[in-house]
Amino acid sequence: MLELAKLRNFLEQPRHIVITTHHKPDGDAMGSSLGLYNYLIQQGHHVKVITPTDYPDFLSWMPGNGEVIIYTDNVQQSAELVAAAELIFCLDFNTLSRINELGELVRTSHALKVMIDHHLEPEDFDDYRHWDIKACASAQLVYDFIVNQLHHKELIDKDVATCLYTGIMTDSASFKLPNTTSSVHRIVADLIDLGANNATIHDQVYSNISEERLRFTGYCISNKLEVFHEFNTSLITVNKSELEHYHVETGDTEGIVNYGLSIEGVKLTAFIVERKGKVKLSLRSKGEFPANEICKKYFNGGGHRNAAGGESTDSLAEVIEKFKSILPTYKKLLMQ
Ligand code: 5GP
Ligand code: MN
């Protein structure tokens, strides 16, 4: 492991740096990556953010977004950048399988690797780690890294603050998950003082959707929601033809899972969607119920206790059946 003092030293000269984050990036993935990007470029580093896949329009407005390279659209250029990098920041993921083919490039690269992350069970591929599962967002850890480890609070400008605010806001579900501690609120207050415009950011992320997406959400809630009162569980499932009918694009399904958890008494909810060649699951839970355990044990996934995901190559119908068949095992926990 690299010592912090050595990393600080290393960053004193302009370096070739790559920042990468998990596939299908969410608000925290993009917010933490672009927050760190906007900080590093102020010091003359050559920095590129490479995402393994594309990401939704409601995340495509943050400062620095125009410079982001999407691996699947720029395979050769991404490989060259990773090969030339002296330092690679791995943000908001901790196993190389979360960055698809980029994983092998990062693994074999001679660059120093820094992991900034808040997920369970990190893989051992990094040289320096700022990792804390209690953090509500990787963007919170980037703030802490810049302010308390690199002592550069003065370099948090409006751009950095805007991106980090977005990461914390989205991963804490607008400051309402249990890990939104008083220190998170203090950080967020700082970010507002440093230039983040909270009302504008909320609007950009949450009030900027297409009419079709809103109608699709309505369809999911009124036609596709099932509630299993005997297990305090709800479920929304969507098949490929429904996605096609509503012209659903990347990110359009994000957030739908949360509606199932807003029903009184419901402790666990799942959103199961048929994607190209696989079925993807998103689980959300309340309190102590371990959504990540279900994803890990049964659906090749993982995540946090209250927000987890997984996938399967079985058919949609099989995955739905499997999910339902698991519920009796957890009945006691669900009915507490
Ligand atoms: P979402 O439901 O928003 O796709 O994912 C919620 C959380 O679950 C993510 O922040 C991530 O930690 C985790 N997650 C989602 N999908 C996967 C997966 O396929 N594998 C693992 N290990 N974690 C996942
Ligand atoms: Mn995150």
Mind sketching the topology for me?
Elements: H1 4-10, E1 16-21, H2 27-41, E2 46-51, E3 69-70, H3 75-84, E4 87-91, H4 102-108, E5 112-117, E6 128-131, H5 138-149, H6 158-171, H7 182-193, H8 198-206, H9 211-223, E7 225-228, E8 233-238, H10 240-245, H11 256-261, E9 268-275, E10 278-285, H12 291-298, E11 302-303, E12 307-312, H13 316-326, H14 331-335
Parallel strand pairs: 1-2, 1-4, 2-3, 4-5, 5-6, 8-9
Antiparallel strand pairs: 7-8, 9-10, 10-12, 11-12
Helix pairs in contact: 2-5, 2-6, 5-6, 6-7, 6-8
The structure holds guanosine-5'-monophosphate and manganese (II) ion.
Guanosine-5'-monophosphate (5GP) binds at residues 119, 282, 301-304, 307-311.
Kindly describe this structure.
- The protein folds into two domains: 4-206, inorganic pyrophosphatase (n-terminal core); 211-334, Diaminopimelate Epimerase, Chain A, domain 1 (Roll).
- Helix content is 40%, strand content 19%.
- The chain has helices at 4-10, 27-41, 75-84, 102-108, 138-149, 158-171, 182-193, 198-206, 211-223, 240-245, 256-261, 291-298, 316-326, 331-335, and strands at residues 16-21, 46-51, 69-70, 87-91, 112-117, 128-131, 225-228, 233-238, 268-275, 278-285, 302-303, 307-312.
- The chain has a six-stranded parallel β-sheet with strand order 3-2-1-4-5-6, with helices on both faces. A six-stranded mixed β-sheet has the order 7-8-9-10-12-11.
- It is globular and about 60 Å long.
- Residues 28, 92, 118, 137-138, 171 line the site of manganese (II) ion.
